[in-house]
Every structure is written in structure tokens, then in C-alpha cells.
Amino acid sequence: MNIAVRKLRKKQRELKALTFYLCLGLLTTSCLVDPAQNRTGSGGKALKNTQDTVSAGYGRVLAANPLILSDYSADEDTDLSTLITRSPVPITNNQYLIKDCTMVANCLEVTEDTGISPFYNETSQWAFPVTSTEFLQINAYYHMSKIMDTYLSDMQNYYNIVYPNTGSRPFSSTIPSDSDQHKSFWKSLTNSSSKLIVEADSSLKDNASFSPSNFKIRLGYLSGYTNLKMAQDPSVIYHEFGHTVVERLMNHRNRSYAVNNCLGNDEYEVCSGESQLGYFAHDDALSINEGLSDYFSYFVNSREHMGEWGLGKFKNASRPLSEDDSLHIAGISSDSDSRLRYPEYLGYNVYSPEKRIDDIHLDGQIISHFLVALTKEFQNKCTGTHTQAKKLVFYTLAETLAELGDLTAKAKDSFVDQINLDINYAHEWLKSVKPVNFRNFSQAFARNVLKMTIQSTSLCPLNSFSKDDLEQLLDSYGLLLFRTYNTNYNFTGTSGNVTVNQLNRKKSELISKNLLIEDTRSTYSDISVFDIRSTIYQTIRNQMKIEEVTTTDARYNNGNGQVSPGEIVGIFANVFNKSNSIMAGTRVLASDWAHMQDGLPCTDLSDNFPSLAQGGTTCDQLTKDNYDDSGRIMPVCMLTYNDGSSTKILNQHEFLKKMKSDIGLLEQDCLGQGEERTQDDLNNCFVKAIPSANTQNIPFMLPNSNWQETMQDEQGQPIFTDSNLMFFEINKNIPIGTEVTCRLRTTFSNCDDCYHDSQSSYDDFSDFEFAGEKPFNILNINFKIGQ
After folding, report:
1. Helix and strand tally (H, E) in the chain?
2. 3-state helix, strand, coil in the chain (%, to 5)
3. Are 88 and 50 in contact (CB under 8 A)?
4. How far apart are the C-alpha atoms of 93 and 225, rounded to whole Å?
5. Residue-wise pLDDT tens digits, 656-673
């Protein structure tokens, strides 16, 4: 990273950088009060903001954050009543801050904090002192309400907006055809009320967050400052609502399917679970989620910086949204050669550019910068107006997210063939096997840009935005990571797939998967084991589904750095980037895969293990018809059994049969909950990769380095987190000394042959192939059960 020199900065920041976790979403168009038309500057006349100064249904708010309203002069001592709207603005005629949207009843409720009901206002006059909790709630309600109205209106009328005055659709949409009928862009089968709750004066310290599980946004406070709150910064509100809409759009197709097919039926996970854009503490999808949410603050206010007040002024954690921002270091600009390029600028922080920081918000800046640049391209070459250009970006994202989050394995109503493997495995595919990453997000987004602009002029009336324009812009951000647009949706060998002009790939590097290898240097161990009880206990609570774990309190963990009976352990497999480029989005998978046949391990995979003499078998070539045959997709961990005359590598059910005769173990002694054990329990009887935590994520590795060398703390120690460990549960009944081999798979985001099939004109691999080895490398880890 070329980050040796900082630019001179317009504003001086005094505090150390602090990471903020502004979790998950999206939003849409702006209909807010123009702050330039309705404010005084800092030091202007303070307004008496009391109920007797406004009519019923009206109040006063901060139209933008205090720094913007004060020309960057506001500080913690500024009287915010000098910055609120001079004229009252419409709030609500209700007596509570509870909203019924046009298409969705009871859609929004704003309250103070958890467990506190919305406050009652008998007069419906919404003017309160700026230091009061009532003002914070009104400010949050005003901005949320405006955004929600626009989003819901756009989605309710999506087809009329996207296909104006046309007798037929100009392209095949991923948006469900009955979306407006079921309101599947907002309503959830698992949250029937679909009411977004906003806690505007939350006790959340130094943070704001969105939780999809209870459909709640929390706007916290800044520690060390009495009156500084996140709810005073509308760009933070927009960011959090952005996460909300990302979650809604990722499940757009799922919710439509659920309404039509799932009432009284939970056969498939799409009927009881939903998609997320990101599943682990740090994966590509969460970084993209953060970038999208940052972009949608720009979508509302057209300002190329996010969080100046709530994040930047006091905590040095605000984020630029374009290369023209003065906080960027020298060498970053809007010139095509100087963009915020992937993966070079992963971990780049404008407040401490001399070092990389492992943080999803920073990594997401690449996406936000790309989308802002694309908006300007659309304005100049497609729409002619900035407002319509932003809408076009939003419509493209709506199409993209509905497709990427689809658990029904169709992507479009008209599809007969399956994508995302199939409805039985789709959730596991999205979570760990083939998740959203920088590569496939860029490809899917580009595919939708192609159909909505270049292949259709209704949304691009200027008609001067070309395929080369799109590819060159993607490449300037290092995001031209695909060889085809995959317009045939992984159906390898079918005709009609649009290919990338390879001359446009100048900055985007594609690395061979063979350059991700096991680190065999003597200075590093093959694996690192983490088994301290207090740490693992917190991980169970924060990262895992309780029903997946037999021993939920980590009672057997002894903290000796070995894998012992009864423990839940975190394992880090040491991999090495052998290339001369940054390797990004590396994942080590401990999820089940098709490495066996009839329950016997395949001998003819690239690891050549185990041999036929060790109990292996020659497996049939994987096809779309046999990938999930009985005994084919199996857990990764196998156990060694020696009967005194030979050594065999057995699946865990077969090992249990040996233990029945040797030491009297029974099915009920296997890992699992309840009296009965399922076939899945028997296959995971002794060593279970915990499904919700079965992937090791490494956001980036420097050239010719491993993670320990790439990311270290101030004492030079490697930084391990829940996200870059895989977690396994060990049966308390497993014999000490048992040898375990876990056959893992590895991949990374800027990989060439992890996604492109060189034997099929570099078309994408079919999804069933991701059930096996072909798109991956195999990495075997070995450990012996200790005391």
C-alpha cells in the first residue's frame, strides 16, 4: 500500500482511532429538508424549542449533523438549539412516535431505550429542548420516517418505475412478480409485525447498530461527552437504516416464496430461516454490507463523507466516500490509476494510514467509493441528473441483493434450473461454501448493470454508458475479478454468456489457487489450538447457535492448548500466501462436503489420502445427479482405528461401531442433544465442526506471508479473533490418544481458478461442483486427543 505521506487536512482530529460496529443494511431516496435553507450557523440565535412554539403535528429537528450545519465549527459545547430548523417541520399527528406506512401498517416505532415504551405526547406538538431524550427521539423519527416512505414507495411501484411506458419488460427481473402484493420487500414471515424499532437514546456505548433478529436499530452515545449522541447525526441514522434495507432486500425472494409455500410447512430453511449479507465477525460479505450502508448515507444527502459528528469529530472513525475527500493520503485520487483499489486498500484507515487495521467498515470503503464513482458515471452517461443516477444505482442493488440472497435456488421467477446448489443446501452455500464476497458481488452487480443500462435504454436515456465503461471503472477499483458476467447463472457450457474484455483488466489481479498453501516453515506450527474456558464460553454465547452445541458452558475446557475430550476448541490452520500479490478473502472450510462415497473416504482426490489399504475407495466423478447421494457429503473429520494388524481411516459412524465392541460406547454417547441421535449426530459422533462457526476467515495476507506476519498487535503478536478460527466440539467419550484427520478446503476471493473453469472457456463452475474439491484446495489438519 502506498501510504507513506498524508495530505494536509482541513480539519484536525485529536483523539486516537476507534473502531465502530455499525451493523447490517440499505436505504433509498432523499426527501429531507435542505439544511442550507433552514438553519443558522454556529453562534446564531438560539431557538426556544418548546411545545408552545409549534402547531400540532410539527416540531424542529437537526436537518443534518451539527458539523455540517455549523460549517465545521461545532464542538461538544455548542448549543444545538442554534442549529435546529428555524421553521417547524412535519413530524406526526399521532400522540406517539409510531408510524403507519402507506403500504405497511405499524411500520416504525421510536423509543428511548430497551424496555422503555414510546413517550406519550398529548398535544402532538413535537418541540422539546435539544438536550432532552424527547428531542433525540423526534430527530430519529423524522429522518427514519422520510427514508422509509421513499423506500417503500419505490419498492411498491418498482415495476412501474423500472419499466416506464413499456408494453413488456425490457429485461428479466430478479424482483418477485408478486412483491407488491405480499410486501416481501419489507414484511417478514418470522417477524409478522414488520415493525422497525428505533432506540434513539440507547445505552449502547460508542456505537450504533442494527439487529435483524429483533428488527431493531440502536443509536448510542459517545463516552466521555455528556450530550453527544448518535441520534444527532442523521448520516449515522441513514447508515443504520441502510443495514435494515440490505437485510430486507437479501430476503426479498425468500419472503415472497415463504408467503406462498411455507405456511404450516418448515421443510426447507427458507421457511424458517433467512439470508444475511455476512455471517462471521469479519468476512467479505459484512465488509460489503458496511460499504453499501455508507453509500446510502450519500444516497440521501449527496455528501461524500459519512459520520462527521457521531463518528469523526470526537472518535476519529468517520469515513470518506470518494477519493476527492481531503482526509485521504497522497496518492489516492479520482484518477483511474489512483482509486481506492481492492485488495491494496483493505484495512486502510485515513486516521492512521501507516498501518492496516482488521475492520469491516474500513474494507467496505472500497465498495462505497466505487458506488459513488458509478453514480457520477451514470449521471454523465445515463440519466443526466444526479437524483436519477442514485436511483439507478439503488435499483441495480435491489436486483443484485434479491438474487444473491435467494435461498429458493431460482434467482428469477421464470427459472426452471437451480442456482445456489438447491433449496436443501442453499443456506449452507450462502453462509460458508460459496458466500457473497468481493468477487461474486462485483460480478452479480455488473451483470445487473449490464441488463439495466447497456441492454435497456429506459433507465439510461442518454445511452452513452458502455460495457467498456463499466469494466474499466470496476478495474480501477480492482473489482474486475471475473472473466464472464455469468449471464447463464453457473450452467456451465450453455450458450449466451457475456465475457469480459480482457484488455480492460489492468489493475484487477487474479491469483492461482495453488499459491494458497499450507505453511510448512519450521518457525510456525501447522495449527494453533485455543481452549481457554472463559474465552470459549463467550464465543459460544456470541457466535454459535446453542442447539448446535452439546456442552454449552465449555465446562470441560482446560486451557492447556491441546484438543481434549469434552472441549469446544478454536483451531487456526496456518496457511501461506505464496504469491507476490495480496491475497484477500481467504477461507478455510470445515463444512461437510462430498469427499466420500458410501461413507468411505475418496482416495482419488488431490491429497492422495487415504490409500485403498487404509480404507479409502475410488470415487465416481461428481455430477449434478450424484453429489448428494447417501454417504457422499460427509463431515470433514475422520478417525484412525488400529485393530492390531492394520490401520484404517474411518468416518465417525464407523468408528463408533468399533468403539461399541471395544469399550461399549452407544449411539446415545455421541455428540447431540436429547435422548435420540440422528444420522447427522452419528456422522459427527466424536468431532463436530460447529455449523455456525465452521469457517476460518482471513481478510488479507501480504505477499509471501501468513496471517501471523500480516496482522500483529503493538507487541508483535498475531491477532486471532472468533472470525479467523474454526470451532470444533470434542466428544467427552473419545478415547485419549485418538488420531484425528480433518479434510478441509481452502479458497480466496481474488482467486482465478476457484471460480472459473478453464476447461469450459473460463465459464463459472456449476454450483454442484462446489460440493466437491474442484474449485478448492484440500488442506488436511491432524491432531491427537490429549489429556
Report:
1. 18, 28
2. 30, 15, 55
3. no
4. 33
5. 999 999 999 999 999 998
| DSSP per position, 496-520 | -PPBP-GGG-SS---B-GGGEEE--
Residue 4 Cα distances to 352, 386, 476, 710, 741, angstroms? 11, 35, 21, 18, 45
* Alpha-carbon distance values, 29 to 173, 302, 315, 635, 715 (Å): 21, 10, 28, 47, 46
Domain boundaries, given as residue ranges, for the chain: 515-784
Return all residues near 1 (Cβ < 8 A) that are at least 6 apart.
344, 345, 348, 356
Measuring CA to CA, which residue among 245, 156, 244 is closest to residue 198?
244
Least Cα distance to 419 among 757, 758, 769, 692 occurs for 769
Cβ neighbours of 599 (radius 10 Å) = 16
pLDDT at 246 over 90: yes
Q: Which residues contact 665 (CB under 8 A, 6 or more apart)?
A: 656, 659, 733
> Nearest 5°: phi and psi at 100?
-105, 120
Output the pLDDT for position 262: 84
The end-to-end CA distance of the chain, in Å, is 45
Single-letter amino acid, residue 664: G
3-state SS, 364-376, equals CHHHHHHHHHHHH
* β-bridge mates for residue 98, sequence order: 109
CA distance 220 to 546: 28
Selection from 87, 80, 39, 32 nearest residue 59 by Cα: 87
pLDDT, tens digit, 9 for 90 and up, residues 369-423 = 999 999 999 999 999 999 999 999 999 999 999 999 999 988 888 887 778 888 8
What kind and span of H or E run contains 299?
helix 284-301
Residue 112 CB coordination number (10 Å): 18
Check: pTM over 0.85? Answer yes or no.
yes
Give the span between the Cα atoms of 641 and 663, in whole angstroms. Answer: 13
pLDDT band at 495 (very low <50, low <70, confident <90, very high): low
The whole-angstrom separation of Cα 540 and Cα 519 is: 29
The amino acid present at 147, given as its one-letter code, is: I
Pairing between β-strand 58-59 and β-strand 637-642 as defined by DSSP bridges: unpaired
DSSP string, 13-51: --SPP------SB---------GGGS---TTSPPP---G
Cell of 753: 481458478
Backbone angles phi, psi at 109, to 5 degrees: -140, 125
Where is 293: in which H helix or E strand?
A: helix 284-301
CB 449 within 8 A of CB 760: no
Report the candidate in 655, 746, 651 with the shortest Cα–Cα distance to residue 701: 746
The x, y and z cell numbers of residue 305, run together, are 463523507
**Mean per-residue pLDDT, 618-638:** 96
Task: Tell me the Ramachandran region of residue 420: left when phi exceeds 0, alpha when psi lies from -120 to 50, beta otherwise.
Answer: left
Backbone angles phi, psi at 779, to 5 degrees: -130, 115
CA 62, CA 737: separation in Å to the nearest integer?
66
| 395 closest CA partner among 383, 384, 407 | 383
What tens digit of pLDDT does each residue of 32-86 get? 333 333 444 444 689 999 999 999 999 999 999 999 999 999 999 999 999 999 9
Whether the Cβ atoms of residue 746 and residue 506 lie closer than 8 Å to each other: no
Distances (CA, A) of 316 to 310, 313, 752: 10, 6, 37
Q: Alpha helices of 664-723 — where are they, by DSSP H? A: 679-683, 707-710
- Say whether pLDDT at 192 is over 70: no
C-alpha cell at 21: 460496529
For the chain, give the mean pLDDT. Answer: 90
| 543-550 contact pairs (CB < 8 A, 24+) | 543/280, 543/281, 543/692, 543/693, 543/722, 543/727, 544/690, 544/692, 544/693, 544/727, 545/691, 545/692, 547/673, 548/690, 548/691, 548/692, 549/690, 549/729, 550/671, 550/672, 550/673, 550/729
